[in-house]
Write the structure tokens for this entry.
Amino acid sequence: MDFNIVKIGGFIVLILSYVVLRKAFSKFADFTERIGKPYEQAEEMQEEINRLNTKIINLEQQINPRL
């Protein structure tokens, strides 16, 4: 009877450790994903700024054509 209790207790410990490790790896993955995103967003924002600056230059040239 004691042997079955040990098996059941071991199984419960294995399940709990699996859940804890899975949550820890999930949080670590989310953290590393957040670290990597600012660089991607900064590049996208810089591209957007460059595109808008060219539009502004084109519109200024249309408003004030050089004679």
